[in-house]
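Archive entry. Fields below.
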Amino acid sequence: MSKVLEGLLYSESHEWVKVDGKIATIGVSDFAQSEMGNITYVDLPEVDDEFEAGEEFGALESVKAASDLYCPVSGKVVEVNAEIDDAPELINEDAYANWIIKVELSDPSELDALLDAEAYKKLIEK
Amino acid sequence: MGTFSYFPHTEDDIRQMLDRIGVERLEDLYGDVPAGFIHKGDYNLPDAMSEQQVRDFFEGLAAKNTRLKVFAGAGAYDHYTPAVIPYITSRSEFLTAYTPYQAEISQGTLRYIFEYQSMICEMTGMDISNASMYDGPTAAAEAVRMAVACTKKKTRVLLSETLLPNVVKVIETYSRFSGTPLGFIKAENGQTSLESLKAELAAGDVAGIIVPALNRYGIIENFEGFADAVHETKGVVIEYCDPSALAVIKTPGEWGFDIAVGDGQPLGIPLCYGGPYVGFMACREDYVRKMPGRIVGQTTDAEGRRCFVLTLQAREQHIRREKATSNICSNESLMALYVTVYMSLMGPKGLKKVNCLSYGGAHYLHDELLKTGKFEEVFDRPFLKEFVLKPLVPAEKLQQKLLDAGFFGALSTPEGYVSFCVTEKRSKAEIDAIVAVVKEV
Amino acid sequence: MKYYDKLIFELSKPGRCGYTLPENEYGIHLKELPAELKRSKAPELPEVSEVDVVRHYTNLSQMNFGVDTGFYPLGSCTMKYNPKINEEVAAMPGFTGLHPLQPEKTVQGVKAVYEAMDKALAEITGLSHFTFLPCAGAHGELTGLMLIRQYHMARGDEKRTKIIVPDSAHGTNPASAAVCGLEIVEVKSKANGLVDVEDLKPLLGDDIAGIMMTNPNTLGLFEREIGEIAKLVHACGGLLYYDGANMNPMLGMVRPGDMGFDVMHINLHKTFSTPHGGGGPGAGPVGVAEHLVKFLPETVVSGFHGNFGVILRAYAYILMLGRQNLKYAGMFSVLSANYIKESLKDCYKLPIQSVCKHEFVFDGLVNDGSKEGVEGATTLDVAKRLLDFGYHAPTIYFPLLFHQALMIEPTETESKETIDGFIEVMRKIAAEAAEDPSFLKSAPHCAPITRPDETTAARQPILRYHKEI
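PREDICTED_STRUCTURE:
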């Protein structure tokens, strides 16, 4: 059974979001990493790239699959996690401790459209 | 139906198989095809031939072609193919295998592709090579797409006017449909102009440029300042190169370029009327994820032994579908084996000698032709094995005389020049003979 | 097959050489080249003798499996026997020694080959003319799509930028469409594995360039409603592209042109028996219906005249089989596929019960041996275990419609004895799985290597040889 952390917001495309003021930290859920299997590479955006909510910002690769990452909120990338660039397996080890990007929110009201832990659990149980 | 040697089915086999399936006749296996689509009667094709008839037939066709002493290049070079190459490449374990999906029983293919990649890196001075592409011009067209993918938000790619016409044509075809705008960098005295490049870069939106190492006139170009100029505007530089020549001339790596492409044909692949050849593509490490085509990597098996697999496949069409780096799937694996065996046999010294002989022969022919008084020099630039001259006699007449004497040379260029090429396969006696024919024109 | 661990670089010893070259008679040497154009350091290629090279590559070949080694039921790849006369023809010096730019009058034999192949392929496919420039199937797809776009653009119909592709399509279809600047619209398959015509209808409009289909499709099923689909797509102004990867079972029986297709490619390395060469060279000539012939010269997609050597081999194959035998190639391939399907469907899940064409897809084992605390055997495990018995594995995990897809294509060149042997082994493997799946999970046990660590290969890529210092 995949872990779902309380207190985070989730997208239907399996990204999680943690909000701290204007900054949203974004990663992928434990469910997403377990579906992918051994992650071999994370295609990361660059700092200052801007994304709309729902837009692709990168991708996860495993040996036999690739899965696009969708930005759950609109905003500008302020930081990318360089550690996962060198060691993508960290996401397999702990998908919540190893975030992917931090985004400066351009429209905090978009957060209302995301799922809470309860709703996300229901989604992945389907 | 009679029996045929590629079909092992006897009447009895067919009966038993149909019984297991539970249908009466072979035709019933097409019961799901609407009757209107079933082809009626036989194809309008020749009757079956015996193997001997087929051999005789093709010998007859081959005899209708004229074998000539080749003094032409323009993208296909008549270098010698050592006997070992066809011997190895016709081994059925290589020849009749498919793409090495099952690594456990494909270590032969995977190993030689790994060796091929390593050798291409050595030749070009690049970090990474893919497992090969269709031919040089398609590799160039793919590199143009790759340049756009490497440089976010820029769209335009500049082509040197000195690229071979068939390379330009294929790039133009691909780009017309993929929507990549192209521009040209002008030539000056047979060499890509740095001034023209700078002017185009100043106009902006340049994702990359592509320039030839040995150009359409056979000239060895000097790219001093090119890499800096393009990198300053965050573009990439692609070099279209002759891999045989790279054994002696400055490499794309040494010029500071980003992607190297070209045709592997000069490395021991027979002319064969233009194909099959093999395209190669190599790049700097930073761009590996943008590179099209298959890539082989080293790893270990469950018992810790060194082995090889197809890797970084998440870039490819069978996983990424429309988001793949390219639609290319299989490459020209067997032709990659040709060039791998060739480079193994030749080594650094053999390749140097091939270039030295080609250089010597080409310069000798060049000088002798000028002495005939029937040509004028066009460019004052260093060349390797191919050169152009301006004919002072009608080009068609010249070509015809050469053909009549069994030579293929004096290829017309769109600029009104004629080109000649000499490889190590041509002897001094043959060169003297072709010059003698020219004198008579 | 035995494990052999050398790379050619590791056999190198300075001073050895594997070539013989004439002496330089010209008195002109490379040292005259300007220093700024010279390479600073010689490439680190191996220095080995001729016998080193021959032994090394012979040893490598012995770790490889080809059609000549054994049965190769790799779905979607049509691994039929590659006749040896083809090789002899392609090696004739009267063909191999020709420069691609030689004047037409000196290559009359070559011209005859292209003309005859154009005619033969037109007859076999029901289309008008072919271009021989594409070097592979995917290359043919790209070329065919270019022709479709060209057709629309020439009519000033610029807005047709979408192409419909079934969800069961080969991965190359959407990839080729993307390279051609087309946007992909997916049409769903029904539970019976065929394109859902009702799902297709609302997709059709004035922005549709066409549809790409393979028939039989990637499940090996004939798209029965192709007549209706062709009518609908043509009515909306689009064209039909036929992916010829699955053309083999249609030989002699059904012609793409008659089904309403406007453009297609043929994989000469599948249907017409030219060897796959470990992944190329192939050839993917593209044929078009009459109304598109005028656009053929616009698609200059390779450097000279395509893979002439491959085209020669395919022509030899057509002449060997001739009018009398060609039609049985398709039929026998279908016979063999259905025979295997019917002989194994009690041990392997057959998701769609229907007559198949040249290939079919199982969805894993009926009994994978899984129980409390024991993971069942997967399609990958079955594939790896097959290697132990001297068979190449089928195509696995494609098409994506099924999670445990195992796609089997026997071709017409395999005897009933070979096929019966394969069936017996497949049944034995199914029994082994039911008994103890872990045994399959450690397969292959008899190949030159055991399963490679693909994760490490992708995480820390080693893509070239470096001399150990």
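CURATOR_NOTE: The interface with chain C takes residues 38, 40-41, 61-64, 88-89 of chain A (CB under 8 Å).
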